[in-house]
């Protein structure tokens, strides 16, 4: 198989399995599992597995990271503000809406990052960025209100947690960027999840909630932790290493499509045409930014080759 085709398939599979993670979480919460317990299990088990993978595949980076208090402190900040808060906010958004809607709302994050960077640099977005921002705002408005000004089409809590998950997802993207370049993804994310998995159960006393382990729940746990977190993350990293991070993030936008599909097929959620209109506008906004980055990278590459 061609190397680029292999990388593309791996990233697409990762995006689809992220969709499986969201719907698995929705199924578990709908069938007796408390959100605090689910968040704790997801963080602890995923953190342990990814940390072991870091020790095996990135031993030098892992050893260097755990010997530096400064690095561990930065990973701890990422664990609490990025990983822990994002996972919890995302699951809360799913609980009050559904996996498809929550995932699409979370994908507003790149627009928030763009707005933050523009404000920090004190410069206005260019035309394509401005269009992307307007499309994302319009798409979010349509999902939340179905185009009406007299009330919300989703619950206020669902809307709040959906947007809050986008904010925390922005932290999840921005905070560890430098650490990942220096110490590798498995080390940073694995240790971050492990730290979050230690702190969160203590804060929420999640052990007090019953662990309902029916065969279906066990399958859903496998889907959200192993398939939708460890497997998906590993495939995404390996695929992106082949085709490039920008193209990888572009293809990973299949995740909300996957989430909506599984929401309909598994949980029998009902989406209206106006919902799909809003989702489409947000996806177009995200894809516009990803394509712009892809063209910029190619332009830089061509310029370097000419010189």
UniProtKB/TrEMBL annotation:
<feature type="transmembrane region" description="Helical">
    <location>
        <begin position="218"/>
        <end position="237"/>
    </location>
</feature>
<dbReference type="InterPro" id="IPR050638">
    <property type="entry name" value="AA-Vitamin_Transporters"/>
</dbReference>
<dbReference type="InterPro" id="IPR000620">
    <property type="entry name" value="EamA_dom"/>
</dbReference>
<keyword id="KW-1133">Transmembrane helix</keyword>
<feature type="transmembrane region" description="Helical">
    <location>
        <begin position="41"/>
        <end position="59"/>
    </location>
</feature>
<feature type="transmembrane region" description="Helical">
    <location>
        <begin position="270"/>
        <end position="291"/>
    </location>
</feature>
<feature type="domain" description="EamA">
    <location>
        <begin position="6"/>
        <end position="144"/>
    </location>
</feature>
<feature type="transmembrane region" description="Helical">
    <location>
        <begin position="99"/>
        <end position="119"/>
    </location>
</feature>
<feature type="domain" description="EamA">
    <location>
        <begin position="157"/>
        <end position="290"/>
    </location>
</feature>
<dbReference type="Pfam" id="PF00892">
    <property type="entry name" value="EamA"/>
</dbReference>
<feature type="transmembrane region" description="Helical">
    <location>
        <begin position="131"/>
        <end position="147"/>
    </location>
</feature>
<keyword id="KW-0472">Membrane</keyword>
<comment type="similarity">
    <text>Belongs to the EamA transporter family.</text>
</comment>
<feature type="transmembrane region" description="Helical">
    <location>
        <begin position="7"/>
        <end position="29"/>
    </location>
</feature>
<dbReference type="InterPro" id="IPR037185">
    <property type="entry name" value="EmrE-like"/>
</dbReference>
<feature type="transmembrane region" description="Helical">
    <location>
        <begin position="159"/>
        <end position="176"/>
    </location>
</feature>
<feature type="transmembrane region" description="Helical">
    <location>
        <begin position="71"/>
        <end position="93"/>
    </location>
</feature>
<feature type="transmembrane region" description="Helical">
    <location>
        <begin position="183"/>
        <end position="203"/>
    </location>
</feature>
<protein>
    <submittedName>
        <fullName>DMT family transporter</fullName>
    </submittedName>
</protein>
<keyword id="KW-0812">Transmembrane</keyword>
<feature type="transmembrane region" description="Helical">
    <location>
        <begin position="244"/>
        <end position="264"/>
    </location>
</feature>
